[in-house]
Amino acid sequence: MAEKVDARGLSCPQPVILTRKALQEASGDDSVTVLVDTMTQVHNCTRAAAKLGWQATYEEKNDVFELKLRK
Amino acid sequence: MKQARDFFASRAGIIVVGLAIGCLAATLQKWGNPPNMGICVACFTRDIAGALGMQSQLQYLRPEIPAFCLGSFLAALAFREFRPRTGSAPIIRFLLGMFAMIGALVFLGCPWRAILRLAGGDWNAILGLLGLVVGITAGVQFLKAGFNLGRSYPARTVAGLAMPFVMLVLLALTITYPHFGEEGKAALFRGAKVPFAPPWISIVVGLVIGFLAQRTRFCTVGGLRDVILMRDFHLVSGVASFFVAAFALNLIYGQFHPGFTLGTSEAGKILQQPAAHTVHWLNFGGMVLAGLSFTLAGGCPGRQVFLSGEGDGDAGVFVLGMLTGAAVAHNFSMVATQPTAPSIVILGLIVVGLIGFLGREKLAPAR
Question: Which of B54, B169, B233, B248 falls 20 to 30 Å from B256 in CA-CA distance?
Answer without folding.
Answer: B233
